[in-house]
Write a structure and sequence with these properties.
mainly beta; Cathepsin D, subunit A, domain 1; 10-stranded mixed β-sheet; 6-stranded mixed barrel; about 10% helix; about 50% strand; disordered N terminus
């Protein structure tokens, strides 16, 4: 299924998406998916677009370009941060539309009526929200941020590190974001109104440039499996890729299944998960084979997004090269590591 840019959607389709989003607001769930080997367990953070969440926050940083070191916990991408007086790690989660804080450290949140949380298993909890005065990492400063609250204690336990929350690319909407997992760094380059760097310098043309489709500050690209076009969410909060198990049998046959497991949620809810390797995946004309993936049902996530998502491209994808996210031009540039290209 290919992506339909919003400008081509009918009024009826837009109304239907709005009804879906307001009828059942699905926000965040960090799922730890057991592979049978605790050292190789994977985490997938799921969150729906929240167009109202970040209205009103202020960015007060004045740099033109900045390089920020990152850390890894498993394959999760962490930045040292200070939120009000609480220090710890924030996860960079491009599949989220704003800021989510760990309710273990941020209390006194007010209930968000009509909003709930969930994940792959479909488990549901009440959502709460809190406004913080300041957020800082490195030389990046924000003020007056409305954040959702979620209990991330199980994620901290799994990765043995203090995690105070996670945030989406929307908080960098005025920048070009360069993600380099090989060197463990992020670069921020401030953009002008046309989406060009304020401090331009000659750069080599990327190996691949793709349009990104923005739906409520979450970004999607088109990928191909067995030469069929599908819609993928760009999700740095997922340690591996995720594929919807409703894809045709022809597509599933391109996946080498290595293991199966059952992911248990709260109560009696559970879902079947398959572990495997992708063998026939392309972005543009570039083949990327051998990436780890899980295969599971994404119906709940699709209902939450209000758009049909065939899969998620996680850190297994972002480790293939250096990624340039131009959020104003909605363009993704990729410099593939030479030993990763065909």
């Amino acid at each position: 299924m290919s992506i339909i840019p919003m400008r081509f959607m009918t009024v009826k389709s837009i109304i239907y998406l709005v009804i879906l989003l307001f009828a059942f607001q699905w926000n965040v769930r960090a799922e730890r998916i057991s592979s049978g080997d605790e050292k190789n367990d994977w985490t997938v953070i799921l969150s729906n677009p929240r167009p109202d969440q970040q209205l009103g926050y202020e960015t007060i940083s004045d740099f033109e370009s900045l390089t920020i070191p990152i850390k890894r916990a498993g394959k999760l991408i962490l930045l040292d941060a200070l939120a009000d007086s609480v220090s710890g790690s924030l996860i960079l989660d491009s599949g989220a539309s704003g800021l989510v804080l760990n309710s273990i450290y941020f209390r006194d949140g007010r209930p968000k009526n009509g909003y709930q949380t969930g994940g792959i298993t479909g488990r549901v909890e009440q959502l709460s929200q809190k406004k913080i005065k300041s957020l800082q990492f490195d030389e990046v400063f924000f003020e007056n941020i409305q954040a959702d609250l979620a209990d991330l204690g199980h994620l901290e336990a799994a990765r043995q590190t203090k995690i105070i929350g996670f945030f989406g690319l929307s908080m960098f909407r005025g920048f070009e974001v360069v993600l380099n997992l090989q060197q463990n760094l992020i670069e921020l380059h401030r953009l002008d109104a046309s989406g060009n760097r304020l401090r331009p310098h000659p750069i080599v043309k990327p190996d691949l440039e793709l349009p990104m489709y923005n739906y409520n500050e979450v970004y999607f690209i088109e990928g191909r499996i067995s030469n069929k076009r599908y819609t993928f969410c760009l999700d740095t909060g997922a340690e591996v890729n995720v594929l919807h198990n409703y894809l045709p049998d022809k597509i599933m046959k391109t996946i080498t299944i290595t293991k199966r497991s059952t992911l248990h949620g709260s109560g009696q809810r559970s879902t079947e998960v398959f572990f495997g390797v992708m063998n026939d995946f392309k972005v543009g004309d570039i083949s990327l084979n051998g990436m780890q993936t899980i295969v599971t049902n994404l119906n709940a996530m699709n209902d939450a997004f209000g758009v049909s998502v065939d899969g998620m491209l996680g850190c297994a994808f972002f480790e293939q090269g250096i990624f340039h996210f131009n959020l104003k031009k909605r363009q993704l540039g990729i410099y593939f590591h030479k030993n990763e290209t065909p």
